[in-house]
Input
Amino acid sequence: MATREEQLTRRRSDYEAAVAPPLRLLAVDDDHLYLKRLRLVLTRAGFDVVTAGDGSSALDRLGDDPEISVLLIDLTMPGMDGIETVRHARAVCSTPGLYAILLTASDGTEVKLRALDNGLDDFLTKSSPDSEIVAKLRSAARRIEMERKLRLENEELQTLALTDELTGIANRRAMFRAADEILGAGQLLTVVLFDLDHFKQINDTYGHLMGDRILADVAACLKANTRVGDVIARYGGDEFVLLLPATNTAEARQITDRIRDAIAALRWEVAGQPITINVGTGLSTAGTGSSIATLLAESDAKLYDAKMGSRGLDVVVEPTL
Output
């Protein structure tokens, strides 16, 4: 009798199999009777099977159907053979890691080596029993699912590495990368540095949890008041950076003023005590030849001047041609 843990594991596996969409497979063969047999066997085994009668038709199906994950293809066909079709398929298929299995009438080593040397993942002979065909496809499905999970986990790690944990916006690393791409493409770039006024006093008076809430709300306000293509980042502590691509100083100043007013309009309350916050800003504009480090230094200098009571808030660094 199975243990309680084994029963739960089996139920979990059965549930996952039930809710997961069936693997979509493209079977390709010019022998219509054999193709009909393949479709029947694999459909009964739980696969979503589509078919094509030659290499050219297979390429059309792959180009139109990004859900196809496995290509099961005959070696000998009129026009393109199976191996040549697979080479073309990998170029047109939008599914990363298309799994290709070659069907052959021969079990010779030479054919298998040729298939593997040309990038196919596995092979089956046409004399293979139904049980072997199904077993090979289920093995392919497990590999595809494992690779899919690894891709998702890698994408999640990449996102975490470039995202500020508290606010959900870009972090310093992401900001520097984005700025380098913008400047490297020769675009005009305006950098705005935002610094929350008296934020340390808020932390000391109302606690860090309240301070974290304010930082998150300010980040959300920044996102709500910027354009598609602008980059919002937390620079560190209570400082934020806004990258404005293809934006001159006058346009950037209008955007900055709107954001400053929006942040000043935010309200919080602790034990009946209202809290508001203002921001200081420093702005710098440059073009080709400037670096993000230079722009940040200029913005920081103007921010300091503003906090010390200077009237000027903006600096323009002339593009280096």
